[in-house]
Design a protein that fits this description.
2 domains; Rna Polymerase Sigma Factor, Chain: A; 221 residues; mainly alpha; Arc Repressor Mutant, subunit A
Length: 221
C-alpha cells in the first residue's frame, strides 16, 4: 500500500505508525474532509494519511478493551481493513476518528467476549510508552515518588475496570481521548444527556473507589 491505486479495490497492507512519519510535511496538514473524499474515490494514499493521524489513539482504544498488546494490534489491523472496505459508506456526519473508533471498539469488545483470559489491569505504562512516544510515564527521578505514582495508577485502573461498560467507555472517551459530549454521543450512538449522566456517575463512583483506599482524586490527575 503506497500508491493511490484509484479504483483498484486492493485492500491496504499492514499499517504501522513508523511506515510514514505521522503528520509530517504537507500531507499531514491536508484537510480531513479532502482526504476522506479521495479515500472514498479509492485513493490508498489518502486513506493511509487518515489512518496515521489516529493510529496511536486507535491502538490505545483497542488495548483498553482487550488489555493485550498483540491482540490489540490484531484488532486494530482488522478494524483498519474493515474501515478501508466501508469508507465509501462514511457520510461525514462525524469525524473520521469517531467513525474509526466505533469500529475498533466494537471489534475489540467482540474479541474480548471470545477470549475471556485477558488480564485484569486496565493500563500499562510500558505499553503507553511503546504506543505513544508522547506519553509521559513519569520522568520523576525520586524512586519513592515514582512508586507512589505507580500505585495510584494501578488503583485508578482497578476503579475504572469496575465501572459498568457504558460508564467506563464514556469516562475513557472524555478523560483519555478528550472527545466532546457530542462526539461521545455520536460514537456510542446515545443522546448527549445520557453521556452527561453516565459521566457524572462514573466520576462519582471512581472518586468513591479511590477515597475508600485513601487516594485523593487530585493525586490521580
Amino acid at each position: 500500500m503506497g500508491d493511490d491505486g484509484h479504483g483498484s479495490g486492493r485492500p491496504p497492507g499492514r499499517l504501522t505508525p513508523g511506515t510514514v512519519t505521522q503528520g509530517s510535511g504537507p500531507a499531514g496538514e491536508r484537510p480531513e474532509s479532502e482526504l476522506i473524499e479521495e479515500a472514498k474515490q479509492g485513493s490508498h494514499a489518502a486513506f493511509e494519511i487518515l489512518v496515521r493521524r489516529y493510529y496511536e489513539r486507535a491502538y490505545r482504544a483497542a488495548y483498553r478493551v482487550v488489555r493485550d498488546p498483540e491482540l490489540a494490534e490484531d484488532v486494530l489491523q482488522e478494524a483498519l481493513l474493515k474501515a478501508y472496505r466501508s469508507i465509501r459508506q462514511f457520510e461525514l456526519r462525524s469525524a473520521f476518528f469517531t467513525w474509526l473508533y466505533r469500529i475498533v471498539v466494537n471489534l475489540a469488545l467482540d474479541r474480548r467476549r471470545r477470549q475471556r483470559s485477558h488480564p485484569t489491569v486496565e493500563w500499562d505504562d510500558n505499553v503507553a510508552t511503546e504506543t505513544d512516544p508522547r506519553a509521559d510515564v513519569g520522568a520523576a527521578t525520586d524512586p519513592e515518588l515514582a512508586s507512589r505514582r505507580a500505585q495510584v495508577l494501578e488503583l485508578v485502573s482497578q476503579g475504572v475496570q469496575q465501572l459498568p461498560d457504558g460508564q467506563r467507555e464514556v469516562l475513557l472517551l472524555r478523560e483519555v481521548e478528550g472527545l466532546s459530549y457530542e462526539e461521545i454521543a455520536q460514537t456510542m450512538r446515545i443522546s448527549k444527556g445520557t453521556v452527561m449522566s453516565r459521566l457524572h456517575y462514573a466520576r462519582k463512583k471512581l472518586v468513591a473507589f479511590l477515597g475508600k483506599r485513601g487516594i485523593d482524586p487530585e493525586d490521580a490527575v
